[in-house]
Amino acid sequence: METTKRLYRSTKDKIIAGLCGGIANHFGIDPVIVRLIAVILFLISGWGFLAYLIGWIIVPKNPNVEWKTPEVKTEPKEETKSEPPTTESF
User: Fold this and answer.
1) Both ends of the chain: CA-CA distance in Å?
2) Helix axes 19-27, 31-44, angle to 10 degrees
3) How many separate helices (H) and strands (E) can be counted in the chain?
4) How big is the CA angle at 3 (ends 29 and 7), to the nearest 5 degrees?
């Protein structure tokens, strides 16, 4: 039995909605190529923008990718008391 690869919006490689990154991932090509094609279609006839909006609505986000926010370790600040300058320090 052959498994089919589904089209998802990318959650890792996204600029606006991840649609171009998801299409590139689905076909195994560089996302920049897909983005350039979308921009060219938009500039030539406006269909690229309409197709992007429809794809944004129809294509689901990739459910298999989970983002884990990295823990930020902060060190406690040491309080230092500064003394006002004296005439001896000049």
Assistant:
1) 85
2) 120
3) 3, 0
4) 40
Among all chains, which residue has been given the structure tokens 């986000």? 61
Burial 47-83 (b: 16+ CB within 10 A, else e): ebeeebeebeeebeebeeeeeeeeeeeeeeeeeeeee
Which amino acid is residue 59, in one-letter code? Answer: V
For 53-78, what is each residue's pLDDT tens digit?
888 898 888 877 655 555 666 666 66
**Coarse DSSP helix, strand, coil percentages of the chain, rounded to the nearest 5 percent:** 40, 0, 55
CA distance 41 to 23: 15
Of all residues in the chain, what percent carry a pLDDT higher than 90? Answer: 0
The distance between the two most distant Cα atoms of the chain, rounded to a whole number of Å, is: 88
